[in-house]
Amino acid sequence: MKNTAVRNEVLVGIDPREQSVPALAWAVDEAVRRRLSLRLVMAVPPLPGGQHIDTPWRRTMLRAQGEDALSEAVATVRALHAKVPLTTELLDGMPSAVLCQKAAQAQMIVVGSRRLTRPEELFSAGSVAVPVSAQADCPVVVVREPEHAGERHPHLVVGVDGSESSRAAVEFAVEEAALHGAALRAVWVWRRPVVSFGDEAAGLEERRRILSETVAGWADKYPDVQITHEVLRGHPVEQLALASVSALVVVVGRQGRGGYSGMRLGSVVHGLLHRAECPVITVPESRHG
Question: Is 132 helix (H, G, I), strand (E, B) or coil?
């Protein structure tokens, strides 16, 4: 069933252990540019090990810490922009699950990145960036610490591979570039096969054709956005991470509807979340439910 919820918010996940000022700044800027409200969500995960005599006290303490984190985040938001519409929520549940549940009313979710190891992503209650990027049904922005800035020629990078999810990523990236007054660089990274059974020159030309078709038409719809496109050779994670060094943001598509979040996210996007030098936006195949 198609989701008909009104998406009128930028949703931000708040971490009580490490407030991400760059993530809050990104979310405030995006809410202002898109004329959306901002919702700060703090989730209190269940206590491990079942019920104990001190469980009520421990939960009260965790909720108090959550309230303090929300208050601190509100103060940061107000220092950045005094008038952006703002609400807060303190909820019970695993942070990633809570954010995915709230995604129905969001145009995007913004979270910080603590660069967890793979075991931490699997078993830690603090694992948020990877599972939310894999499962939320709206674009997810992961803002690294610290975020670089100051490019003389601001541009976004979007990864293209011919899939429906990469087409959705291009649509979002062009829109985002227009909002930021930035150029857009569309990149297809072709990984050289170990054993080649065909004409590599023809394969390269075919990818250039599909890439050109994928971005065709957007220049007419967004005439103020300078759009370039190119096919690169090499490992997709390495090439996109290299492109991220000078980019405002890297936009990539996400495929799949099941399985462990890391598998669902895809190895390229998963690797990029760990290696990119700028925020990464993951776009699902269908952005509107």
Answer: helix
CA 207 to CA 195: how far, in whole Å?
18
What's the pTM? 0.88
More confidently predicted of 176 and 190 = 176
Please, which residues have CB within 8 angstroms of residue 208's CB and are 6 or more apart in sequence?
Answer: 188, 231
d(CA 72, CA 70): 5
CA 160 – CA 20 distance, rounded (Å):
29
Beta strands 86-92 and 9-13, pairing class: unpaired
- 252 residue type, one letter: V
**At 237, phi and psi to the nearest 5?**
-65, -45
What is the rounded CA–CA span in Å between residue 229 and residue 217?
A: 13
109 phi/psi in degrees, rounded to 5: -115, 135
Q: What is the DSSP secondary-structure string of 249-272?
A: EEEEEE--SSSSHHHHH-HHHHHH
